[in-house]
Amino acid sequence: MSEYDHTAIEKKWQDEWARSGIYKTGTDSSKPKQYILDMFPYPSGEGLHVGHPKGYIATDVYSRMKRMQGYTVLHPMGWDAFGLPAENFAIKNKVHPRVAVDKNISNFKHQLSLIGLDYDWAHEINTTDPAYYKWTQWIFIQLLKKGLAYESFEPINWCPSCQTGLANEDLNADGTCERCDSVVEKRPMRQWVLRIKEYADRLLHDLDTLDWPEHIKEQQRNWIGRSEGAEITFAVEGADPVVVFTTRPDTLMGVTFLVVAPEHALARTSTDSTVSTYVRRALGKSEIERTGQKAKTGVLLPSVRALHPVTQEKLPIYVADYVLATYGTAAIMAVPDLDERDGEFARTVGARVAETKLMSADEALKVSDGVRKVQYRIQDWVFSRQRYWGEPIPVVHCEKDGVVPVPEAELPVTLPDVEHYEPTGTGESPLANIETWVNTKCPVCGAPAKRETNTMPQWAGSSWYWLRFMDPANNSALVAPENEKRWGPVDLYVGGDHAVRHLIYARFWHKFLFDIGVVHTIEPFARLEFLGFILAEDGRKMSKRWANVINPNDVIDTFGADAFRTYEMFMGPFENTIAWSTNGLVGTRRFIERLYRAQEYVVSEHVPQLDVALNATIKKVGDDIADFKFNTAVSQMMILQNEIDTIKKIGKDQYATYLKLVAPFAPHVTEELWHELGHTSSIHLEPWPEYDEAKLVSNTVTIAVQVAGKTRGTVALSRGAGEEEVLSAIFSDPKLMVHAPEKPTKVVFVKDRIINLIP
Ligand code: ANZ
Hints:
The protein folds into 5 domains: 23-126 and 459-535, Rossmann fold, CATH 3.40.50; 135-195 and 381-451, no CATH class; 227-375, Isoleucyl-tRNA Synthetase, domain 2; 560-695, Isoleucyl-tRNA Synthetase, Domain 1; 700-758, Ubiquitin-like (UB roll) (Roll). Helix content is 35%, strand content 18%. It contains 25 helices and 32 strands. The protein starts with 5 loop residues before the first helix and ends with a strand. Residues 227, 245-248, 251, 323-324, 327-328, 330, 332-333, 335, 338-339, 375 line the site of ligand ANZ.
């Protein structure tokens, strides 16, 4: 037997698989399908560290098993390559983002190839390829035609450092810019916005149809933030009526004052100087500052009074910044007796508090002329960015015809080359400076017109990419209907980090594509598995800053891809965040070596002692891979290996079965050993082993061994073993031998239970 040389074995089989094309996506539509998808990466300049491939290895293991179980498998990979990092890199190093991105992609591909993943590269996509973003632009035009894309002039989040507008989803929990942590301003500017709110109810409701982790569903529900309540109108003496949104119309009798947001018309139009100073200050605060502050502030609006709809009592109206402009009607009815925030505010300004007599909500609505109303926390999606490296928004502005979509036959609108990628600082994208590109003709009237110079956000290309993987080269449709019917929906989607944004945008676009007949399912991803991150050995996040990054290339060089893959699956529960451990990796490497050496134990005849362990392993590995419990699958394989090492014998067919079980985890070494057994076709195309139910139950019993009534140990034997067999087992066990009398005067033996030797 040769030494286990992972470098030679892995190179050999990677080359051979590429040559023979065993991982090509199957076309046999008589077989059931499995579409298994990773969240595709952003190809950063830093390359992959060992944490990145954890999900890819998991889908690789899963897809290999599914292929062996007789499914045709689509398991593709591609690049989500638009976005700010490539652009910032371009600015700093004066390299075109296209050049930088292509270089990064080829590095990523090389790194992935070392791991031995079963991707079908014939399905590769790249969101920055004009042949791809032609369809991203096409979807935008369909949204525009259906009235779901609109121009807005409302104040939006503006990051002064990234110099671009942002969606709410792009902010950290504390309201700062997710990318650079800068404090985000509100800035009024022209924006393209998508009406995701129109889909809020469906996005919420259809979560119930999905096999997703509950915590991800819950985050989506919270983001959508549906509240059932009512709008109640209060007449105002000296001004227009004020409409409030409340989730508690039953508290109407406890209302002692109203509060409006500083942005509310009643506040903005006030001529009182205290009020206008307060309003000006409040508008300078971020929403997070406003909701987070402990002490409530506010001022009375003089000379206006609201009328309570039931008692006709005159109620003061305050302006206070704990009432938000972006929610409900920007005005509330305060119930200081029951609502904590209102109570605090009442104490601060010395407003009246009354004991609340609850009434039925229906009765309250009847007496106040209130109307039932549903509110959402989710805001429409701010969809334009004032940056270069993104998909151009495919519309033209004409003085006469207004906003005109670029005719579909003229797509894609390609990104022109520019000399300067820097943001202009004027709130316009760098594209605005390229006159030859900006100036065009109106597609409707032919008069001179201007192109839209904003680009799409980084999330656009990933909001539909799973569909393109089904039909990556189609130039006449986003996806051919027969391909979409064949592969949709994604059966298993794996990734981390995008619990809200990507998943909510992707579901929104998918539902829209369903509405216009492009896809046949209401949801894109039937099952989702969310992965836990790998931390550095020191327990911190892997980062250049801490100099604790582990590069998979080095690990594979030293330990081999098979040990690396198996280790990442063995580290712990898939969802958990776990620190890297070189010791753990060494242990896994040893397991692979023992598997390799076990070829020495192969005998031609069946070894019945291994039946129970092997059948249990077939069952457990299959069930555990299906359930994403890779760590317990690996430990079961290790249990079987221990058994083999104890017995030092394994039947040839049994070894072949064992290799098939390990193959999804360690595809190279198992392929090598499989061929060593004399096979000529790939182990990865073999049928998955089936277990024999009858052999799952252990046939071994543990018999207690006593000497003069004192327990000295146990022996393990086949059920039903006779006294002779038990005695010979005792005398071949060195630990028991020393206690046992060679010629006992009496032997008490209870079959399968106990033996007592009396000296
Ligand atoms: C009276 C009341 C009495 C309220 C009570 C609550 C408890 P959710 O559940 O988040 O939808 N509210 C309405 N619009 C607001 C705004 N723009 N800024 C800040 N607060 C606002 O919360 C709805 C409740 O939050 C509403 O119901 C309103 O206060 C307040 F015992 O009305 B309630």
